[in-house]
Design goal:
It is built from no helices and 31 strands. With 420 residues, the protein is mainly beta. The strands form 6 sheets. Strands 1, 4, 5, 8, 10 and 31 form a 6-stranded mixed beta sheet that branches. Strands 11, 12, 14, 16, 19 and 21 form a 6-stranded mixed beta sheet that branches. It is globular.
Amino acid sequence: MSTSILIGTYPSGQPLADNTTWFFPPGQLSSNIAAENRAEMAVRDAGTFQKLFCYVPANTASVSTTVTLRKSRADTALLVTYTADLTGILENTSDTVAFAATDEAAFEITIPTEGGANTFTISVLACEFVPDTIGNTVSFFVGAPASGGVSTATASTTSYLVPMGGIQTLTDTTEARQTYRVRSAAVAQDLRTFVSANARTTNTVVRTRKNAVNGGQSVTYTSTLTGQLEDTTGTDTLAAGDDYNYSLTTGTGTETITFYHFATSLVSTNDDFANMVGGNSGLAFVFNGTNYVGIGGGLLGASATEIRSQMYPRTTFTAKELTCYASANTITVSATTVTLRDNGVDSAVTVSFAASETGLKNDSANTAELATGADEVNLKVVTPNTSGSITFNWMGILGLATVPSGGPTSFSSFTLLGVQ
């Protein structure tokens, strides 16, 4: 039975004030949203959520804070509780929650009120998903803004978005920066978006894109229409080597429309997973630095403290096909390296960008074995001691695990998603 891991990280730490309830799309820690309907992710393949994992680097809230998986706006048993000022890793490895193909999922973080200014800071939030359909692996690609919604008021323009990660702008018209290079065959489906405000009087269309042409999925916001839209019939069949992303096309007029998320599901029958950490405006890494990011989600920040981006997978898997896209590089003397980390040590899986080199780089030769519950996983970016910076728009990896004999808790693969 296949499984996926939805992982959101925010290496610099997502600080949340007390006397607040926040909601996050599974696989994201960028969007601290006060309205649950703006954060919900559609579950359109029945299955089970399990193995909740959290890392909290700082906590000054002297009250108990709960992190809870929500099912169609109701609390579930999949939760952890951080008592007064507690930090570090907490897991719930015993409770499971079954979802139907008509449910929605979101994470809720509730911090009760207390005197003074107090914050609960989280940097990793992850769980697993096991689909009911034997032989399938379901990967959830969710794009969400860094805080609140993200808006556009352009007229008659087509812009492009990475399919997974942080959405900082809706105005990038250079598609190459926003395309994810597929490394294993899958079917993309169930395009879903959410609009909180729409003053436009003409149509706004969101589409999937495959190899720089319109894909098989789309939704249309007509004049002043808001709320969630889904395409539950269209699909995109993706082969290894295909490019996949989203587009947004506005009609005439310069009124504002505000989006909160873009999402699709990727279904694989190859016993492998695809994950991606992305940011459609890119993240610049300055020279002479060693920084760490997570394995998937939003590429909106990095940290020199490695534990803030690490998580313990709960299945053994083989990592391979590290792929990175750099849109700018003003480091003119030496190479920049991106390396998969295995239990706090460099693995053989790595790519290198020579001085001034940009574009797509891939390591198709090396692999790394990560053991369940023992080997932390994340990415390390090392820039040389020269000058300048290098900007990455996304990094991705494939994983493969062997299915042990047994029932629905056995795994054939998993997906790491939603890293900040």
